[in-house]
Amino acid sequence: MNVIFEFILVLLNIGFSCLENFISLFIPPKRKDITNEIALVTGGGHGIGREMALELATNGAKVILWDINTEGVKETAAEINQNGGFARAYKCDVSNVDEVNQTAAKVKQEVGDVTMLLNNAGILYGLNLMRLTDEQIKRIWNVNCLAHFWTVRAFLPKMIENNHGHILTLASASAISGTAFLVDYSATKWAVDGFTDALDEEIDKLGCDGVHTTTVYPLFVNTGMTWYPRDRFGRVFEPREVAEAAIDGMLRNRHYVHVPRINSFTRAMGGFLPKKAYRALKKYCDLGIDLQVKNKDD
């Protein structure tokens, strides 16, 4: 094919995609039906994971809950089942590849093939880099990043085989702009952002147009992980708000979900503004966290 003609087609594709995205701001895509889909939520025993599980069940999905917090996942599963939904709880440390594979095999045998994987489990220390221990650094990478490799490798093959599925990644606003006292956390969230972006392209290269990805970028959320958030003009969001936005975005096959939505401009500004200008804007908004301590009363 003529190079110039190919280039014209690319420009038309870019223009159509931009127009489609602009229109979607005012006329959102239709939500897909997930009745009887099997959705697995890691870190489903509390916080955003718990709220996403409840939202999935409300929309008719069969929900699988993984967490190291046994009581938490049992309580979430019990609430879903009592309300007429379907939920099963499993204790699983997603940072342990053997445990992930063993629990995945149990899920497939007892419930069926997972069609929606929501990688939500995460930890946060909120310390400056030099105060972090070697074990803390290893642990946050194992939980926040490497776990995504283990869970996706456990369930993606069947999604590709059936050309049907969805992978949701809970990243963070820190995946767009690195934050002081979150050097380790920001690094892991940048990593999973890149992981999902590359994975989405890889799935596309394999010709699987029925397997989708969604990455969620919440700002500060009241989960107990961050005690001292700072935001001059914004507020701390509740887990329920983030969960509703995340599931809504997934059901509309959106690639990116920002909470709040205005943060979608942060990514664009970060790409255009000089570093000093962007940091000055961030300082003006007083956006970040204070150094975390062992106890809230310290």
TrEMBL record:
Gene3D superfamilies: NAD(P)-binding Rossmann-like Domain (3.40.50.720)
GO CC annotation: lipid droplet; membrane
Pfam families per the UniProt record, alphabetical: adh_short
Entry coiled-coil feature ranges: none
Alphabetically ordered keywords of this record: Lipid metabolism, Membrane, NADP, Oxidoreductase, Transmembrane, Transmembrane helix
Subcellular location: Membrane
Signal sequence bounds: none
Membrane topology: Multi-pass membrane protein
Transmembrane segments: 7-27
InterPro entries listed in its UniProt record: NAD(P)-bd_dom_sf (IPR036291), SDR_fam (IPR002347)
Alphabetized PANTHER family for the sequence: ESTRADIOL 17-BETA-DEHYDROGENASE 11-LIKE, PKSB
Family indicated by similarity: Belongs to the short-chain dehydrogenases/reductases (SDR) family.
Chain's role: Catalyzes the reduction of all-trans-retinal to all-trans-retinol in the presence of NADPH.
Name assigned to this protein: Short-chain dehydrogenase/reductase 3
Naturally occurring in which organism (per UniProt): Owenia fusiformis
